[in-house]
Request: fold
Amino acid sequence: MEISAHIRAQAQDLLAFIDASPSPWHAVDAVAQRLRQSGFVALREDERWQLTAGGRYYVVRGGSSIIAFVAGGESLAERGFRLVGAHTDSPGLRIKPKPLQAGDGLLRLGVEVYGGPILATFADRDLGLAGRVAVRDGAGASLRLVSFGEPLLRLPNLAIHMNREVNESGLKFNKQTELPLTLGLAGDSGAADGRFHALLAERLAVESGDILSWELAACDTQPGAFWGADKEFIADGQLDNLASCHAGLSALLAVESPGTTNVCAFFDHEEVGSESATGAGGTFISDVLRRIAAIAGLDNEDYRCALARSFFISADMAHAYNPNFPAAYEPCHRVAVNGGPVIKINANQRYSTGADSAARFIMLCEKAGVPYQHYAHRTDLGCGSTIGPIVAASLGVASVDVGSPMWAMHSIRESAGVLDHGYMVAALSAAFGE
Reply:
């Protein structure tokens, strides 16, 4: 398989982006850094905005969601918005507020399951810790990013000698009693909670007593990699859905002077339903679009016209066919890795795609010169959902659900195709170039 240097460089940049983003807060920080390097100006929701035609801006909500946009040079009411949406969160294990359990000579961290991870894949991995910490700062508090990129935690497996049926019955963990992560030896000095505060304080170079609260996740420390006979595949954590965030961001940066106002919206909390201030079910996207429209001089009628002329692409990863498990797939919808972007369809509106929006995305793929595929879930299996139906319903805009094909979705280490990432960037760039 021949892969151009440009496509391979895009995949390498994706892996670097993911490795710099071990938590949703780090992902948003990484996106913001790239935006600033490309001349985007930071806006605040609690301040008045001043926008200019052709201006490039971004705004962050809650530290884990970000919306970036380029104000188009043509009439917003007549052209509408071109929107790409994705999510910054991934399923996994989150650290509890009072996590340390001391007993049997060991320190262990209590965790809560976030979303729907494949828990067995967390066993026997070199786990780090990443997220944000609230630190006392004078009379108030400031939020600081923290990351332990080196092996710090572990979920040791039970030997097969004590679990003889594991290969027949599968590896299962009781979420309360069998998931606490081993941190170290208990020792005999200090309270357990104080030990953990001290660990965070040392990494942040603050006093232990100034640690107020945190949102922390266990993360894999193994960096992303190319694999396969021709290095045609990639493996990393959080491909679902940081690969879509990276593709949308790359496309936004690739179109320099669009006529249409282009928007990338990356939300937190998709994996747990999106119902939050920073999720797609909140007001973030509508608040931003309304402010853009108001500053552009649109009244409510013009704003409604703009929405009616808008197009939303919900980009979230898709299930690639795994030949080891053929019975899991709809026979006529076997999606191939490195076969191009996947148009996801569900009659019960788990995906937002309609015949009209699917046709529009197909034409974008044709314009970009990339292949495309169709996916439908087995009728006798429950189908996952995305931010697509949520945003489409709240804004009333035409919407399509698409994604790059991947294996092992929600594993701690997922796989996808090198070509597919380049294909998705090209298709989204075509959408922003309309």
Observations:
- The two ends are 31 Å apart (CA to CA).
- The longest strand covers residues 140-153.
